[in-house]
Amino acid sequence: MSTASPLSRPFSVRLPEDLRGRVDALADATRRTRGDIVREALEREIANLEWEQRIVARVTDLREGREATVSLEEVEREFGLAGEPVEPDDLPDAE
């Protein structure tokens, strides 16, 4: 059984020359390794990609009827706002 941490497992990625040059330049400027730069970039961007994927999944659920929706008319009726212009400060706090 290996005692190596998951962080030490290599992962190969082919980069276009211009992107590799940018990684190299940033690594040199910050005195960090290429791996550190790429790892940090992935950690930052993966959250955005996951967020985008959750949106796509939610839209798919809505379109396929697996997620319930409420019309604007229903919301207005529920809060007694039908046909009335509403200022944001006039809305009740959501619980």
From TrEMBL:
Name this protein carries in UniProt: Ribbon-helix-helix protein, CopG family
Organism the protein comes from: Gulosibacter molinativorax
Highest taxon of source: Bacteria
CDD domains attached to this UniProt entry: RHH_CopAso-like
Pfam families, per database record: RHH_1
InterPro entries associated with the record: CopG (IPR002145), Ribbon_hlx_hlx (IPR010985)
Residue intervals of the Ribbon-helix-helix protein CopG domain: 11-47
Residue ranges the record marks as coiled coil: none
